[in-house]
Amino acid sequence: MSRLFGDLRQIGIVVRDIDAAMKHWVEVCGVGPWFYADKLPVTSFGYRDQTFDGIHISVALANSGDVQLELIQQRCDTPSMYRDFLAAGHEGMQHWSSWPTDFDAKLDHALASGYSIGQQGDSPRGRFVYLWNEGHPGTVIEMAHMTADRRRIFDGVRDAAVNWDGRDPVRDSWPS
Q1: What is the CATH number of the domain that holds 129?
Q2: Which tens digit of pLDDT belongs to each residue from 31-84?
Q3: CA angle 66, 131, 38 (to 5 degrees)
Q4: 31, 13 in Cβ contact below 8 A?
Q5: Is 43 part of any domain?
Q6: Burial (CB count within 10 angstroms: exposed 0-12, middle 13-18, buried 19+), residue 113
Q7: Is 151 helix (H, G, I), strand (E, B) or coil?
Q8: How far is Cα 121 from Cα 128, in angstroms, rounded to an integer?
Q9: Residue 4 resides in a domain
């Protein structure tokens, strides 16, 4: 557990081909099922103190135990930390995420501790923020506000992984 951000709940993996990545995780690693959204509904998005409309990111979520894996493929040229990560020649773990219920307090503490906001946004599930302070690739910290909607979806993703038998490996809607 991070003394600053709480439990590590999710590993964010930025990929160039989300379909190939899901296939790998299912066939090679045996992890699934994956809950896939071709265009995550992001209602606001900011990167480096600028606001951008219409970011198109595809995401897929699956759990291995209590840790959630998030595959992310950006499908547009909007400036973002995902785009920067790929442009630097990286692919793979880009961030880890905590899911605080006291989002504002944790964010204020992080900013007071020297972190700055790299990108942030909002969605029907709640707010999220990525903090600058990457020591090496894969150590960006995301905080996703643990709202009731986000908890319902994330609990459903985790529950679907328990005793998953390999059938129906990719699902095109969030768990209900």
Answers
A1: 3.10.180.10
A2: 999 999 999 999 999 999 999 999 999 999 999 999 999 999 999 999 999 999
A3: 60
A4: no
A5: yes
A6: exposed
A7: helix
A8: 5
A9: no
CA nearest 94: which of 106, 86, 102? 86
- pLDDT 10s digits, 96-153: 999 999 999 999 999 998 899 999 999 999 999 999 876 666 679 999 999 999 999 9
User: Token pair 């897929």 is at which residue?
Assistant: 60
d(CA 153, CA 18): 20
Domain hosting residue 141, numbered range: 10-165
Separation of alpha carbons 53 and 46, rounded Å: 9
The phi and psi torsions of 171 (rounded to 5 degrees) equal -120, 135
Q: Is the peptide bond before 137 cis (omega within 30 degrees of 0)?
A: no
Question: Is the separation of the CB atoms in 73 and 19 below 8 Å?
Answer: no
Closest CA to 60 of 26, 30, 87: 26
Distances (CA, A) of 16 to 58, 68, 86, 112: 11, 19, 8, 34
CA angle 157, 94, 144 (to 5 degrees): 50
User: % helix / strand / coil in the chain, to the nearest 5?
Assistant: 25, 35, 45
